[in-house]
């Protein structure tokens, strides 16, 4: 990694061959094996793995239950549990299939991810503008990013893994369409610089980054702390902001990726308005495929003054 550039160096360092990394290599080897399998064969195995996850992942499942109960207060307990089971199924499918992105051909990527609504992207690109794609944390987000990066120049930003081998492996996948991957500490300036170089990127507005600079806004059946920065970033970089949704069709063994029309910049003027607009977009994406969302995240960690913590 280059500290100066603050983006991940995906060249392979020989130090990753050290024996201390051999257990990680075993895991990666298993993932690569699954990546080589056809989806029709791999998906049933993933659903079997999901049953094991349901038995052992007690803490993440408890977080998911809190999130879903808060976001969908009308759901019965049976409905909440059913959504959690579907969610774990999709988690396992995404984990076991992701390695195919590292060595699959462009044709394979296009077969696996059907792209809809690309006319909205073409319109913006023909006007000479880059795009900030809005997508919350969903299990197939790597598929969405790489499929769009196949069509237009893009960069990304990611948090580093503690394990250096997994760090190299995951960012090698993310950069398989030649997109540059920045470390999170690179900050907004790096993304603004990329917009000015006509590179688009994904922004994930659903992460709870704490009370500082966040604004509370309605979110599904509750209230959520949201960081309103996208509107100013888009304005400074002459970019359009477009929501994206993706869902996995287990029958067809394909992902459906849809780019929605650009958000009206007027609706994001002012921090409160932007937080509301972003949360509404995230709601749309989640409600399209609620089983695909990362309900395991502590997305409601920051609460308004006077409210008790949820986790």
Précis, in short:
Helices cover 46% and strands 15% of the residues. By secondary structure, the protein is α/β, with parallel strands linked by helices.
What order do the helices and strands come in, and which of them pair?
Layout: H1 22-36, H2 39-56, H3 58-71, H4 77-97, H5 100-103, H6 106-112, E1 113-116, H7 118-126, E2 131-134, H8 141-149, E3 154-158, H9 164-174, E4 180-183, H10 187-196, E5 200-203, E6 215-219, E7 222-226, H11 230-236, E8 240-249, E9 254-259, H12 271-288
Parallel strand pairs: 1-9, 2-5, 2-8, 3-4, 3-5
Antiparallel strand pairs: 6-7, 8-9
Account of the 3D structure:
By secondary structure, the chain is an alpha/beta fold. The chain is 46% helix and 15% strand. The chain has 12 helices and 9 strands. It has helices at residues 22-36, 39-56, 58-71, 77-97, 100-103, 106-112, 118-126, 141-149, 164-174, 187-196, 230-236, 271-288; strands at residues 113-116, 131-134, 154-158, 180-183, 200-203, 215-219, 222-226, 240-249, 254-259. The protein has a 7-stranded mixed beta sheet, with helices on both faces. Strands 6-7 form a two-stranded antiparallel sheet. It starts with 21 loop residues before the first helix and ends in a 23-residue tail after the last helix. 37% of the residues are buried. The model has no long low-confidence stretch (mean pLDDT 93).
What fraction of the residues are assigned to beta strands by DSSP? Answer: 15-25%
> What is the radius of gyration computed over CA atoms, rounded to a whole number of angstroms?
19 Å
Principal-axes geometry comes out as globular
What percent of residues adopt helix (DSSP H or I)? 40-55%
Kindly report the spatial arrangement of strands forming the biggest sheet. Answer: 1-9-8-2-5-3-4
Mean pLDDT: 93
Count of discrete alpha- or pi-helical segments spanning 4 or more residues: 12
Characterize the biggest β-sheet.
7 strands, mixed
SSE sequence, one letter per element: HHHHHHEHEHEHEHEEEHEEH
The N- and C-terminal alpha carbons lie at a distance of: 35 Å
- How many beta-strand runs? 9
């Amino acid at each position: 990694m280059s500290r100066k550039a603050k983006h991940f160096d995906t060249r392979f360092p020989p130090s990753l061959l050290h024996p201390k990394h051999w257990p990680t290599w075993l895991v990666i080897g298993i993932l690569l094996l699954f990546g080589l399998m056809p989806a029709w064969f791999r998906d049933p195995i993933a659903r079997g793995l999901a049953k094991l996850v349901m038995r052992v992942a007690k803490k993440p499942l408890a977080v998911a239950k809190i999130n879903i109960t808060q976001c969908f207060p009308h759901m019965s307990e049976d409905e909440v549990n059913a959504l959690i089971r579907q969610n774990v199924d999709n988690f396992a499918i995404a984990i076991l299939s992701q390695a195919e992105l590292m060595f699959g051909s462009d044709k394979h990527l296009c077969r696996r991810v059907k792209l809809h609504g690309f006319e909205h992207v073409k319109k913006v690109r023909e006007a000479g503008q880059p795009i900030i794609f809005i997508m919350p944390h969903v299990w197939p987000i790597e598929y969405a990013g790489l499929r769009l990066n196949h069509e237009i120049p893009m960069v990304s930003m990611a948090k580093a893994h503690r394990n250096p081998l997994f760090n190299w492996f995951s960012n090698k996948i993310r950069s398989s369409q030649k997109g540059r991957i920045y470390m999170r500490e690179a900050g907004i300036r790096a993304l603004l610089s990329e917009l000015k170089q006509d590179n688009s990127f994904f922004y994930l507005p659903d992460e709870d980054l704490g009370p500082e600079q966040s604004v509370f806004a309605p979110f599904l059946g509750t209230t959520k702390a949201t960081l309103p920065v996208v509107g100013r970033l888009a304005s400074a970089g002459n970019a359009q902001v477009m929501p994206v949704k993706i869902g996995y069709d287990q029958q067809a063994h394909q992902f459906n990726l849809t780019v929605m029309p650009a958000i009206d910049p007027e609706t994001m003027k002012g921090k409160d308005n932007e937080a509301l607009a972003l949360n509404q977009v995230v709601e749309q994406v989640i409600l399209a495929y609620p089983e695909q969302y990362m309900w395991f995240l502590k997305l409601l960690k920051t609460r308004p003054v006077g409210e008790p913590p949820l986790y």
